[in-house]
Each structure stands twice: as structure tokens, then as C-alpha cells.
Design goal:
The protein is of the alpha/beta class. The protein is 27% helix and 19% strand. It folds into two domains: 2-118, 3-Layer(aba) Sandwich (Rossmann fold); 134-197, no CATH class. It is elongated and about 65 Å long. The two termini are 36 Å apart. It binds iron/sulfur cluster (2 copies). Residues 152-154, 156, 159-161, 163-164, 169-171, 177-179 line the site of one iron/sulfur cluster.
């Protein structure tokens, strides 16, 4: 899932300074699961902002609404049938959601309320770990399900670098060395010989380094008759 964290309230208040009628928009998918922008956090943000406004003597109106997903036109179009009356929307979706809303409803202003940070999953309550950089050419089958592109500080395809100590990365002592983890798993599975295999350079043109990407699935496209 996409993991993000709500921007500090002071930053949000600064963004909203020129506006009086605000609608805070939650997203009930990733942003809700990472406890940053679901219905509950949307209501919480509205209360906090309202308290801040009271303290600062600012007059205005704050409403809330939560879409199931801000990143799909289907849900945006449904939302557009009864748009809240406001000057601006503060979106608590990820950057994908903010851009989908902006593209679909170009006459409206959507401001980002979250700092979208990474693709990952929760390790425990309140702790999320980054584990995929969406490189477009997955090699997890070669690395025992552990991504060295994301989890090795040097993104080494042929590791380890030789700097790890006690299983920790030399760059960040609080982080497990990805290649140590790969070694351990290969060892446990009786596949250590695979450490000897040299991986060729990755095709980075499939990653973001080749510019923004689009996936086209012809088998899923609707016939338009054109
Ligand atoms: S190899 Fe690429 S797609 Fe696979 S987990 Fe790592 S970054 Fe993500
Ligand atoms: S210590 Fe391990 S995780 Fe850190 S840079 Fe070297 S190989 Fe990568």
C-alpha cells in the first residue's frame, strides 16, 4: 500500500490561509489503512484545524467528506455529482489521489494534506516499513522475496557490499542489511550456491528513471468503436 503521514497542522494552516470555506477530503483506502487520511483522521484534522482557527480568531467553515478512493475516476465522478460548496479541498489522499482529483475536476483546487512517503506495509501497530520502489522489473524471485533495490542502502543487485556488521547495514545501524537477510534465507532453504550468481545490470528504463510510466493492458481496454 501507499504509506504517508499527515502534514504538520501548522503547514496545513499556512496552505489554507487564503481560504475560508474548506472541505477536508479523506480517502478510505491506503490513507485509511495507514491511519493518515481515512474518515477518522479526516474528522480529527477538521477538529484540530477548527480549534486552531478559533485560537487565531480566523472565521471560516470546515466540512469533511471521505471517498472510497480518490485515485479512481469512478469514485471521483460519483463525488462530483454533489460537490461540497467550498473554496478549496484539502486532500488527505496520497499524491496519486490528489493528482487524480485535480485532473478529473480541473476547475477545483486540491491541496495535499499528506506527505506521501513510500510503498510498504505495517510491521506492527504504528510502524510501517518501505519495501518496494516500484522499479518496474521485479527481481524478488532472485532474492528470496527480499528487495535489495529498496532495502539495501546502496540498492546493490550483487551484494553484500562488505560493510555490514552483526546483520546491520553499514549506512544505518538500526536497519537490517538486506543482503544479510537474503543470505540467511538462502542458507535456510539450502540454496546458498545462488549467492554466486552474478546479476546483470537492471533495466532502469522500466523504472521511474525513464520518466513517468503508463501501463496499457489491451485485454482490459473498452471497445470504443473508433
Ligand atoms: S524488485 Fe522492484 S518491483 Fe520488486 S520489490 Fe523491489 S523495487 Fe519493488
Ligand atoms: S550493509 Fe548491506 S544493506 Fe547496507 S549497503 Fe551494504 S549490502 Fe546494502
Amino acid at each position: 500500500m501507499i504509506v504517508g503521514k499527515r502534514k504538520p497542522l501548522a503547514e496545513i494552516a499556512r496552505m489554507l490561509e487564503p481560504f475560508k470555506k474548506i472541505c477536508i477530503l479523506g480517502c478510505a483506502t491506503c490513507a485509511a489503512v495507514c491511519l493518515s487520511g481515512g474518515e477518522k483522521e479526516t474528522a480529527e484534522t477538521a477538529s484540530l484545524l477548527s480549534l486552531l482557527w478559533q485560537k487565531e480568531g480566523k472565521e471560516g467553515e470546515i466540512t469533511t467528506h471521505t471517498l472510497l478512493r480518490q485515485c479512481e475516476y469512478e469514485y471521483i465522478d460519483e463525488f462530483a455529482k454533489a460537490l461540497p460548496d467550498c473554496d478549496v479541498f484539502l486532500s488527505l489522499a496520497c499524491g496519486v489521489g490528489v493528482q487524480a482529483m485535480t485532473t478529473r475536476l480541473p476547475d477545483k483546487i486540491f491541496l495535499p494534506g499528506l506527505n506521501t512517503t513510500f510503498l510498504g506495509y505495517p510491521l506492527e501497530q504504528g510502524v510501517w516499513a518501505e519495501n518496494c520502489l516500484a522499479c518496474g522489473n521485479c527481481i524478488l524471485h532472485l532474492t528470496m522475496g527480499i528487495c535489495p533495490i529498496t532495502r539495501c542502502a546502496k540498492s546493490m543487485l550483487n551484494g553484500p557490499c562488505g560493510g555490514s556488521q552483526n546483520g546491520k547495514c553499514e549506512v544505518r545501524q538500526d536497519v537490517d542489511c538486506a543482503w544479510h537477510l537474503i543470505y540467511e534465507r538462502l542458507s535456510k532453504m539450502g540454496e546458498l550456491a545462488r549467492m554466486e550468481a552474478i546479476q546483470p545490470p537492471q533495466d532502469w528504463s522500466a523504472s521511474h528513471h525513464g520518466g513517468p510510466r503508463t501501463i496499457v493492458r489491451e485485454d482490459l481496454r473498452l471497445e470504443t468503436g473508433e
